[in-house]
Amino acid sequence: MSALAAARGGMNRVLRPFGVQMVRGRSDDPAIQPFLSARRTLTAARRADLSIEDYIDRRSAVPGATVETVNALFRLADSREKMQRICEIGAGSGRYAARVIVSEHPDTYEIYETAGDWLPRLRSLPNVVLQPADGHTLSATPTGSVDLVHAHKVFVYLPLVVTIGYLDEMARVVRPGGIVAFDVVNEDCLDDEMTRNWVSSRATLYCMISRSWLLGHLAQRGLSLLGGHFVPLSGGRTELLVFRKA
Ligand SMILES: C[S@@+](CC[C@H](N)C(=O)[O-])C[C@H]1O[C@@H](n2cnc3c(N)ncnc32)[C@H](O)[C@@H]1O
Question: Which residue out of 33, 36, 168 has the highest number of ligand 1 atoms within 8 Å of its CB and is therefore the one to mutate?
Answer without folding.
Answer: 33
